[in-house]
Amino acid sequence: MYRRIVPAFLLLCVAIWSASSLAQTTTTGELAGTVTDPSGAVLTSVNITLTNVATGAMQSTQTNSTGAYHFPLLQPGTYKVSASASGFQAVDKTDH
Description:
Elements: H1 2-24, E1 29-34, E2 47-52, E3 58-62, E4 68-74, E5 79-84, E6 91-95
Antiparallel strand pairs: 1-4, 2-3, 2-5, 5-6
């Protein structure tokens, strides 16, 4: 019986250690939002540009049918978000 418990215990320890080490290596974030007009109506097809202030790296997307946008897997840092759409004034926001 002792021979069965030790390998099972070791396997459990390795599984727990592996899971905890994976959790510690996550160094990315995400940015998501919804674009609305002053009346609260969602805006579709708005051009959204995300710029990393330190590196100048840019990503672009458009809002979907619910006015939502999403930038996954972002490195830590300060970003500038720009939104533009025909008939509306462009908006820039910098945050970290």
